[in-house]
Specification:
Two copies of one chain form a homodimer. Chain A has 16 helices and 15 strands. The longest helix of chain A is centred in the first third of the chain and has 25 residues. The relative contact order of chain A is 0.09. The interface between A and B is large, with 50 and 50 residues.
Chain lengths: 450, 450
């Protein structure tokens, strides 16, 4: 454990450098805001202020706290001005409301405007809670900062660290709260072994009634500064399950590989052999990467998978698995029982001698796409109809339409597809750039078992 | 209609010949029974006695009515003796109890022993009802015999005539009762248009409560001589539906083809083309015909279809259709989406962190038939396992076992399969002998529309 901590906890020297830089930055920001209004205050919040940052993380979150009478538009304008003046490569970003991101020395800095509210029950925007989070965490994890670091690194090693759409895992704040709740890294891992789906955790004074309906999430961790918020709302079933199982395995046999997994070596030939043994078929759809922030990109990619899967299944193609991989381009790969299916499908109609019978018989009387006349199976009408029989051809035609967004495809993915796409199959679908993702699909291994 | 009747109703001359033969036969039987016991009586029953027989039917059912104190074994012995003496090619047959079948002049004769009971409520065997059926029908269809003949021929033309397992249609007695109930052939057809599945028909004095649970059959026609019996119990959903639709079409446009359908010409080449267009695959299993009566044969064949269908579906083969054809040999043909399926199948296991998790992981730790290690999908464990990938090979192996009856295959079919069988696929499955059945399958046509 000491060995792990050595790698992830910043040294005294690093902390000193960090503090010096932070002081300098805060002084500069303070100077600017005081020019505008002496009532505006500033604060360094987040892991930087709580001493729970990992050595590899070089983030500083500077909050600018405005009096309540300021308009949102003013907040944005002021913070943008300050960012432009102080930061290198300043960029305006939007979460629920705007903030500025840029660089200061080696550090990645966010300058975030919020309202100086008296209590979290008077929220004007989501970020107004942050100062209260900071106070709560500082009070409850004093002396346990390294436990937070261990938990963060463990989650990072098993790809469960971060609440962003790309990960759908555990946020830094959630890690801090888990340590505050259970006391140490190891106690958190032990606690997970009793978690059930829909597990509710809080610091008291919360009624559990109706919480599972309100928060349809595998884990419900009530925010100690706002009982109406589930801190774990971004956590997916997949990452919830994975964390619990990783904890089980770690407790059985602790290993450094949980924190620092080995890199997998990709062997194209071995991978192709694995694929061929399965006897299935593969389709890879590649298109250019939409120029949007990751949170939007990954959310849309997940929706796109659903759209494509349903589309193929509605056409009777049997989808075994579907996943995406993001590189310079995007690849959505789909494993199918078969790329070709029969042209004929048995279509069951209404029962004989019911009201719908006549409509059914009239509809198919001179229908072009039929293989047989209507006939009776047991109590029902039936007929063999024609259908698309090739998945590649079907997708090619579907994606060549000009109005993919109307067909349910998420906007940015739709635009990208309308510009260009390509479909490769089987061996041709094993594109160099996406081999790691294909390997994870065809030969899944837990990070600590590579 | 007159034209139809001319073809199906016996002429006066034929009726005369029929009567003379019947008299002669009855006299001979009577002479024999009186030698044994003067209390034994005889009667000509069935369509012969009711004058509802079709010209093509040359059947006579002679019932021998015994006093109640006779043992069943004695009935059998006596009737067998008489049959051997009077009939040509006498053969013992078994329905619920034994009877003798043979020939007398040109006629097919059955000599059936039963008990001379006073009322159908004192039944000792199923055939004891027949004399009462006779009395009821004679009383109610007087003058409407030709209406019965039209209905019988209509049903015959659409393959719905006969309650035997081969047909699963309408018995002669049921035809007579329908005419008794509705008055004429056309009124029966009209009545069917209001039939719902589970239709209940009776001649009064019957409580309908609980009848549908008691008789799970599409049509429930309560026997006027025994309220505990459904005369239509052998009728399948298929034939029930077909009759109703045929009636609808006939009422719209009466045609002689309903009574006398054209023979279909089989064109092997055209049929093969139809099959290839569908893009499906065909498997034909042929084996020798078990030497049992039709009622047992067809019942077992239908069960065998279910066994084979479930077997294939349990192994993930997608069965589109399955049917049998009886010729000198038996052929069971199965249309599949594909004869080959991938070797890999996704197997979903228990939820993560549940009691079953450990058993699942232990089971597959050193499992031979796996393509991947266990992994997590959402909240559940999953793994890719190996499976049979060729339907022909799989069936070949299954049917080569020595204990097919234990595996659910009906006894006579099992024995026949254990002796020999052969499996042909696709073009090779289009065996000359079974082309008519394949044509009905791949290009189904109603009898009146050929």
């Amino acid at each position: 454990m000491i060995e792990i901590l050595k790698k992830i906890a910043p040294s005294e020297k690093e902390k000193e450098k960090f503090s010096r830089t932070a002081e300098k930055l805060l002084a500069e920001v303070e100077k600017e805001v005081k020019k505008i209004d002496s009532r505006i205050s500033i604060a360094l919040l987040g892991s930087a202020s709580r001493d729970t940052w990992l050595r590899c993380e070089k983030d500083m979150d500077v909050f600018v706290l405005f009096p309540l009478e300021y308009e949102k538009a003013q907040l944005e304008k002021i913070v943008t001005q300050i960012g432009r003046k102080i930061l290198k490569k300043p960029e305006k970003r939007y979460a629920e409301h705007p903030y500025v991101k840029g660089f200061y020395d080696d550090f990645e800095v966010e300058i975030v405007p919020c309202y100086a509210i008296e209590s979290p029950s008077h929220l004007k925007s989501a970020v107004d809670r942050t100062p209260f989070h900071d106070a709560f965490v500082k009070e409850h994890i004093k002396g346990k900062e390294n436990e937070v670091r261990l938990l963060k690194q463990f989650l990072s090693g098993i790809s469960c660290y971060g609440a962003e759409a790309k990960v759908e895992g555990f946020s830094g704040y959630l890690c801090e709260l888990l340590i505050a709740k259970y006391g140490s890294f190891e106690e958190v891992l032990k606690a997970t072994q009793n978690w059930k789906r829909g597990e509710i955790i809080h610091f008291g004074n919360v009624s559990e009634e109706g919480l599972r309906e309100k928060f349809p999430s595998p884990l419900i961790f009530i925010d100690p500064v706002d009982a109406n918020r589930n801190v774990a709302s971004a956590l997916s079933e997949q990452k919830f399950s994975k964390f619990i199982f990783a904890a089980k395995e770690y407790l059985k046999k602790p290993r450094r590989e949980f924190f620092f997994p080995r890199k997998r070596v990709v062997n194209r030939k071995a991978l192709l052999k694995k694929f061929k043994q399965r006897g299935t078929e593969l389709l890879a759809l590649t298109f250019s990467k939409p120029n949007v922030v990751d949170d939007i990109l990954y959310t849309q990619l997940r929706r796109a998978l659903n759209v494509l899967k349903n589309l193929l299944q509605n056409k009777d193609f049997s989808v075994i698995g579907i996943d995406y991989s993001v590189s310079n381009r995007i690849c959505i790969f789909i494993e199918l029982e078969s790329l070709e299916i029969p042209s004929a499908r048995l279509h069951l109609g209404p029962e004989v001698n019911t009201w719908h019978e006549r409509k059914f018989l009239e509809k198919y009387e001179n229908y072009r796409g039929k293989f047989t006349e209507p006939f009776i199976i047991g109590r029902r009408w039936a007929i063999f109809l024609k259908r698309s029989n090739n998945a590649k051809k079907f997708l090619q035609e579907f994606l060549s339409q000009r109005n993919l967004e109307e067909k349910g495809m998420p906007s940015h993915v739709a635009q990208s597809l309308e510009k260009d796409f390509s479909i490769k199959i089987n061996e041709g679908a094993f594109l160099e750039e996406f081999l790691p993702a294909l390997q994870e699909y065809f030969d899944p291994r837990f990070a600590w078992e590579r």
